[in-house]
Amino acid sequence: MNLKKLLVPVLSLALLFPTLANAEVKPKATVNTPAVELRASLDHLLSEHFVLAVTSMTKAYDGAADSKAVFDALNQNALDMKPAIASIYGEAGAAEFDRIFRNHNNYTDDIVNATKSNDQAALKEVDKEVEDFVIEFSTFLATATEGHLPKKAAEDVIRLHEKQVRDTFDSYVKGDYKAAYETFREGFKTMFSISKALSVAIVAQMPEKFKNSKADTPAADLRSALNSLASEHVALATMEMQKEYEGAKDFPSLIWAETQHTADFKAAISSIYGAEGANQFEKIWVTDHINAQSSIAAAQKKGDLQAREAAKKRVEAFVIEFGGFLGAATAENLPAKAAQDAVRTHEAQVLQAFDEYVAGNYDAAYKTFREAYKLLIGVGQVLGDAIVTQFNDKFQVPADTGSMTTVWMKINSSELKINDKVTQMDTTPFMWESWTFIPLRYLSEGIGAEVIWEDGTRTIWVKAGNDTLTFWVGKDYMEVNGVKQDIGTKVFINKDGRTVIPLRFIAELLGWDVEWNDMDWSIKLTKAM
Known about the structure:
Blueprint: H1 34-62, H2 67-116, H3 120-144, H4 151-174, H5 177-205, H6 218-246, H7 251-302, H8 305-329, H9 336-358, H10 362-377, H11 379-390, E1 404-410, E2 415-418, E3 421-424, E4 430-432, E5 435-439, H12 440-446, E6 450-454, E7 459-464, E8 467-472, E9 477-480, E10 483-486, E11 492-493, E12 499-502, H13 503-509, E13 513-517, E14 522-528
Antiparallel strand pairs: 1-2, 1-14, 2-3, 4-5, 5-12, 6-7, 7-8, 8-9, 9-10, 11-12, 13-14
Helix pairs in contact: 1-2, 1-4, 1-5, 1-6, 1-10, 2-3, 2-10, 3-4, 4-5, 5-6, 5-7, 6-7, 6-9, 6-10, 6-11, 7-8, 8-9, 9-10
Signal peptide: 1-23
Domain Copper amine oxidase-like N-terminal: 418-523
Pfam family, one: Cu_amine_oxidN1
């Protein structure tokens, strides 16, 4: 395998927002600024909270021996947030945060107990407690940030988070494990949307404290995307090894979730290093890594020490090969030796947490898990720094010069152009009953907006700057910052599984000029950015 033979990168709009062409000499893009560090810290603690909250509930429902250790880790996660809040809002602000946030951890036990006893009255009371928390916590955040994070926006995303935790748990209880892990993955990603919104608000409130840096630059988005992919891996790997060892019923669905995660990671690699680099990544990542970790758990369950040692040797082979891949891909901006050392430490921590779990030393197991989780959050910094250094011009922050942004697409064509950037969509614009429909996510993310999907209510939030647009599948209206707007026809999901919306309404609402070409059925949107 020739690790140095990688394709010229074509950066995906789903991961990287387009830069506007201009001739200015710009400051060097970087993942290492005070604002990006704030966002990364929130990425870490908020996403870990979600993982531990869901795990605590499912373990408690099963009556697992490690359920108390998970709940203790969940509470420690909340305590670890307190110093970060104190550094921004002082001790009084941190104390109020701690009171609100840690109290809501107790709802996990209340939900589990009411569910196990099928106490509908108790479940209704918990629902009320959760909604009270949503209102109180969103009020705290809006007040603390002096309105830079609007109360309505905070309410919406916190309520979504609570619903995703509950939906994951309810699906688990019903034995619908695939649905549980689908919602788990959605809920996990939501935490990174929360950390972005909160960090942007705090930085806007206190620009001097963060040296006038920004939390939502292309480099910051890359680092956060890598934070998400790396930390979700350690969460899924830890659960997978435990579940395989225990012979748990949800183990096959967890394997499915790991496969979906690998596909997401592969897509991210492809967006930077092309299809060849992505294929190399997938082969290395799965063969002597994901599969080998599973082999260790299976061997431990059988008491086959020889098979376990053979699997450990495969993991070491992965360490060498994957570190070499990262070094070659980044042109040694991340040195292969440094990558190998970091990957080796990660593998040792995952194995240590598993061994402590098998030994029944659950407090130690979750302490090690939290260390492993923190280590992989650091991947976003080191790998992100290497990629941004390698392709710095791709991560430049657009200058506010009033330059025009042009979006081009064509009926029945999968090609999308934004300025000089081209991407291939997995669906196409089309016409139906005199309406032109376009895929919401591609347009939104292509112009730098953030898209959040909530499966249970089939709701889509599009966050563009300080504005929040809310759509519902099957509805012919939407909301802009909480204000209802008719859109003339229903939003729906097309045959490719993509949410589509009427072009002219959304374009004109956002201030884009629409130009239709009757000759080739192409559409051009322009706007001064």
